[in-house]
User: Fold this.
Amino acid sequence: MRSFNRLVTRQAGVVGDRYLGRRPFGEYRVLFEIGPAGATPRDLRARLGLDSGYVSRVVGALRRDGLVEARAHPLDARTKRLTLTRPGRAELRRLDRISDERAAAVLAPLDAEQRARLLRAQDEVRRLLALSMFSVELEDPSSSDARWCLAHYYAELDQRFEDGFDARSWPADATRFVIARIGGQPAGCGVLKTLCPQVGEVARMWVDEPHRGLGVAARILAALEREAVELGFTTVRLDTNRALDEAKAMYRGAGYAEIERYNDNPYADHWFEKRLG
Assistant:
């Protein structure tokens, strides 16, 4: 493991004081995480596993250099929304270009079969390392981590649904609430509700975008099913929107069968059910 880590950090060029010849790696990593969509300091701490003092120092350096600006958050007066300035966006494009060139240089000496092997191996290593840092636990729905997950979940639905999403009218009921963490930081969530005796409902399944493709959602779903068995449910149901193709595929792969409408959720287009063994 240590030998692998040394090789990767050398190849990526993160050992020196200036990454890609310009800035410390930490500053570029924060710049990348803010990206075109913007982020809050809380987002940076959660997604990068950094403490608030370090985030504050790095963001301060980027702001002094005119790459990042902070504005009042439109939905939360207690925090700021960090966005890239025009020079910041230009710097990010330059970083992407140089990073692509370095990646191409790594692949260039390899033939097609070796490239495919390397990419498959990298994907497998990424997944396994994430799982080694992964946990899913019961959580108080009113905790700061739970509120952070739900706020991002609602914001994403508002962007992806054809007619938007109004979280204000959405009930906060939950029989069990679980949070997935990677490296101790929140990465996703899910809710189990009671529909009627012996029937539960899975809801608010969400995984933060940087952690998708690692099997996190499937593990959240499995954790909710274990909670359902513990509560004596024999059946679990769920619904989803037609825009969420990846969610429908995951539910079918986990043994859920599509059924007729069972609720009045205005955002639902598909309904599923699974008998628990």
The mean pLDDT is 89. The chain is about 45% helix and 20% strand.
